[in-house]
Write the C-alpha cells for this entry.
Amino acid sequence: MPQDVCSEQLFSQIYHQWGMPLFRFMSYKTQDTDQANDFVQEAFITLWENCAKVSEDKAKSYLYTVAHRKFLNKVAHDKVVQNHQKQVDWHFEQQSPEFLLEEKEFDQKLKEALNALPQGQRTAFLMNRIDQMTYTEIAQALDLSVKAVEKRMHLALKTLRKNIKELENR
C-alpha cells in the first residue's frame, strides 16, 4: 500500500524530484518565472496541507493539478481585471515607435504569434525550442503520447508561420 507524503523525508524527495519540472511547466504556461515560482510554491504548500490524503504515487499528478488550477484561477481573475480596466475611460495616447529596429519589431511579432497559439501548442513549442526537450521528454512531462506532442508541434509551427506572415503584412 503506498504511503502518504506526510514524512518530511518523502516530501523532500518529492520536492527534489518534481519541483524543477513543475516550475518549467508553469513557466511555459505563465511566461513569468516569478509567477511560476509562486504557483509551484502554492502547489507544494497545498500538498503538505493535504499530505495525509495524497499517496506517494499520486503526488506528481496532485502537484500538477493544483498548480494548473491556480493558474486557471489567476487567468480568470486577470480577465475580470482587464474587463474592468476597459470600462474605465483612460486618455493615454500610444505613439507608434517608428525608430524601433527591425529586430525589436520581429521580436514583438514573434511574441504576439506565440501568445496567439493555443495553450497546449505554446507549451509544447516552448519546451522543445527553449528548454531543448525532446518530444519524448515533453510527452512524459505533460502526460501525453509522443504522437500528441508531434501533432502539437506541427500545428504550432504551422500557426506561427501563418501568424508571423499576417503580422508582417500589417
